[in-house]
Amino acid sequence: MTAPQHTASRRQFLAFSAGTALAAAGCSAPPSTSASAKASASTGRALTKIGLDYPFTQLPLYSTLVKLSTARAKAHGISLLTTSDNASADTQASNLSTWVARKVPAIVSFPMVFEATESIAKQAMDAGLIWVTYGGSLQHQSADIQFSFRKGGSLLGEAAGSGPPNS
Predict the structure, then answer these.
(1) Cα 57 to Cα 63: distance, rounded to the nearest angstrom
(2) What is the spatial distance between Cα 110 and Cα 20, in angstroms, rounded to a whole number?
(3) Residues 83, 51: contact at Cβ < 8 Å?
(4) CA 48 to CA 135: how far, in whole Å?
(5) Strands of 106-109's sheet in order across
(6) Which residue of 7, 38, 53, 55 has the smallest Cβ count within 10 Å?
(7) Global pTM?
């Protein structure tokens, strides 16, 4: 019996998600283009730093997400900051507020509590920072990255129902 072949692995999914999040935050220049020469759309300044806030640091996928995001950012000459929220909404709010106060040019956040994160996103936008909401949508944001759970569930069900792909 052979293991079923999947069209996309978890690693590929995370790479796509990380790449999408960073691209939405302004890290989408081709690798041959110097990121330091690329101006941020909202400020006109070169984007040199992106903050990636994923609060569930205890999950096994966290280290892979950070590894892939760091590689993507590095390919564009951008440094990646990460939070260590340890699944605490209060810690997340504190970390994000610190980034806004320090004027981290672009922030990608997966909010634990959308209502609490909304005011922080507004502060970021008011300060001229790029705010990308990961896994949902806020009123105050530059962009968002959402997932269709219905579509994902349908695709998973179809794949499971069709059996192993023909080789």
Answers:
(1) 8
(2) 13
(3) yes
(4) 24
(5) 79-82, 49-53, 106-109, 130-134, 143-145
(6) 7
(7) 0.69
Closest by CA to 75, choosing from 136, 22, 133, is: 22
Residues 125-166: tens digit of each pLDDT: 999 999 999 888 999 999 888 777 777 677 778 877 877 665
At 155, list the tokens. Answer: 């695709």
Residue type, 37: A
The pLDDT of 38-61, averaged and rounded, is: 75
Give phi and psi for 108, each to the nearest 5: -110, 120
What's the pLDDT tens digit per position in 118-127? 999 999 999 9
Distance CA 52, CA 109 (A): 6
pLDDT for res 147: 73
CA–CA separation, 105 and 128 (whole Å): 8
- Domains of the chain, each with CATH number or no CATH: 51-158 (3.40.50.2300)
Residue reference for tokens 């984007």: 47
Q: Which residue has the tokens 């999408």?
A: 20
